[in-house]
């Protein structure tokens, strides 16, 4: 291989890596996220993720596979639906039985729905079902009409890094 073709190959590889990095983003140093459909849009504004979705089913972004923590964990989420074309947006945690290869999700946990014009901040508990070894965090949205297309910043999302969540004990009354 000539010196010139090595330089061209190196430049093309570097361009490919930069393109891949430009298509993913993370929230507060968390895992990288990617679009769930190429027809959607995804970007970042500082620590906030910006999501745009096409019509049809729920579309959005998803994280890389994350190993299930060995202690009770959770994360804070702030979801703001700006575009009136969006009927609802929500956080979904998808649970997997493997952490590598092409695992299949076997359980889902959905957080509350946030409607157009609303903003909500809430905690999402990471309570893995039996057999889960990995999970993905998804930010999904559905449009008002199946043929629609939202703006590129239709949903603004802030996600914290996971934090330790102490177990919750049911209050009891001790008898004398």
Structure description:
- The chain is mostly beta strands and 176 residues long.
- The chain has a single domain (26-164), classed as Galactose-binding domain-like (Jelly Rolls, Sandwich), CATH 2.60.120.260.
- It is built from 1 helix and 14 strands, in the order αββββββββββββββ.
- It has one helix at 3-22; strands spanning 25-26, 32-35, 41-45, 48-52, 59-63, 66-67, 73-81, 86-96, 105-110, 114-115, 119-126, 134-143, 155-159, 163-164.
- The strands form 2 sheets. Strands 1, 2, 5, 6, 8, 9, 10 and 12 form an 8-stranded antiparallel beta sheet that branches. Strands 3, 4, 7, 11, 13 and 14 form a 6-stranded antiparallel beta sheet that branches.
- Strand 1 and strand 2 (32-35) form a beta hairpin.
- The chain is globular and about 55 Å long.
